[in-house]
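step=encode ok
step=design start
structure_in=
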């Protein structure tokens, strides 16, 4: 026979395990609901945002309760949830429209000093023919122009050094696709939902702006005082 303190401790542990299992089941149900809500984002953006806020508030409360029992498990669990949310957004293919584009005028202004509310040109998902070779077409995720600068953005669900090199080649040929801005200095910005520190530093060394999800929706990850390379 187990003594009373040990039985009590085992009962407490069983209760914790039970609560974790229930929380994981409930959270998976939340993720499924969120996936369906994201698919309706173009039709009813405002309603979806309200639903996500309610779900995040509920999830935050659940995580806070669980953290009182096992901080380590909750930290791993929260990381998994964030990764799943990122994967859902990537699969839906609305990252540029929903996340990157809204913050690009602000970032353009911060980098160039040109007022964000006076952009001369701003477009997303732009398909353009080369002025040098009309048979060559290229799609640009987002383009902004103002003052002396033309900013080209490329957004990737996953970034690696090879993608950085390919983007530099795009920037070197950008004027062929935007002859109306041929006198402007071309600068480049790479964006993703998440960019690890080492890759962000690599992007910066290539003279490019690195952007990822942050407290301002999209945040610049470059070092203070960073000046982008002009192509």
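sequence_out=
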């Amino acid at each position: 026979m187990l003594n009373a303190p040990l039985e009590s401790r085992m009962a407490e542990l069983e209760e914790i395990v039970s609560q974790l299992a229930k929380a994981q089941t409930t959270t998976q149900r939340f993720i499924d609901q969120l996936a369906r809500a994201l698919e309706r984002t173009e039709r009813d953006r405002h309603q979806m945002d309200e639903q996500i806020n309610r779900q995040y508030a509920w999830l935050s409360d659940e995580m806070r309760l669980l953290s009182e029992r096992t901080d380590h498990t909750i930290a791993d669990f929260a990381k998994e949830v964030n990764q799943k949310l990122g994967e859902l957004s990537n699969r839906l293919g609305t990252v540029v429209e929903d996340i990157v584009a809204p913050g690009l005028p602000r970032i353009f202004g911060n980098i160039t000093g040109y007022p964000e509310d006076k952009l001369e040109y701003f477009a997303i998902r732009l398909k353009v023919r080369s002025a040098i070779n009309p048979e060559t077409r290229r799609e640009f995720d987002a383009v902004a122009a103002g003052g002396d600068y033309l900013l080209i953005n490329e957004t990737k669900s996953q970034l690696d050094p090879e993608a950085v090199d390919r983007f530099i080649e795009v920037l070197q040929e950008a004027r062929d696709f935007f002859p109306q801005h041929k006198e402007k200095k071309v600068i480049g910005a790479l964006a993703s939902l998440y960019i690890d520190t080492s890759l962000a530093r690599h992007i910066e060394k290539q003279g490019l702006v690195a952007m990822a999800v942050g407290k301002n929706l999209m945040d610049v990850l470059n070092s203070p005082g960073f000046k982008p390379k002009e192509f």
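step=design ok
step=annotate ok -> DSSP finds seven helices and six strands in the chain.
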